[in-house]
Amino acid sequence: xxxxxxxxxxADLLFALQNMGHGDRLAIVDANFPAHSHAHRTxxxxxxxxxxxxLDSVLKHFPLDAFTEYxxxxxxxxxxxxxxxxxxxxxxxxxxxxxxDHNSKLIDRHEFYSLARECQLIISTNDVRxxxxxxxxxxxxxx
Length: 143
Description:
Helix content: 25-40%
Shape: globular
Number of strands: 6
CATH superfamily: RbsD-like domain
CATH architecture: 3-Layer(aba) Sandwich
Structural class: alpha/beta
CATH class: Alpha Beta
Number of helices: 5
Order of helices and strands: HEHEHEHEHEE
Number of domains: 1
Radius of gyration: 14 Å
Strand content: 15-25%
């Protein structure tokens, strides 16, 4: 155990986050996403945990990229430009974090699948909400 580190952030996850560099992306995906077949680099499973909780824990230590317009991309429902329940929740988590000044956008499911294949890390959750998937792009720490 470590002090001041969320127990959700286990050694494997901390190691993977630490090894990511500026511009690398990570996907946090729901229980229905084919994470194992899309993960060409690192795949971690977080059974019993929802995507919003993982996002909240990760954002406490993961700087979002200030050099890209949308360092947070959230999967949208097919054929819809309206935010899903999960998307609204993700935006609220981001807005309540130190990363609140960064933009987010909804992206089509097919675009999400394509981008997920290029992610450095995919974290699979037990979230069963439809379209509870997002991608974060890592930034730099200036201080």
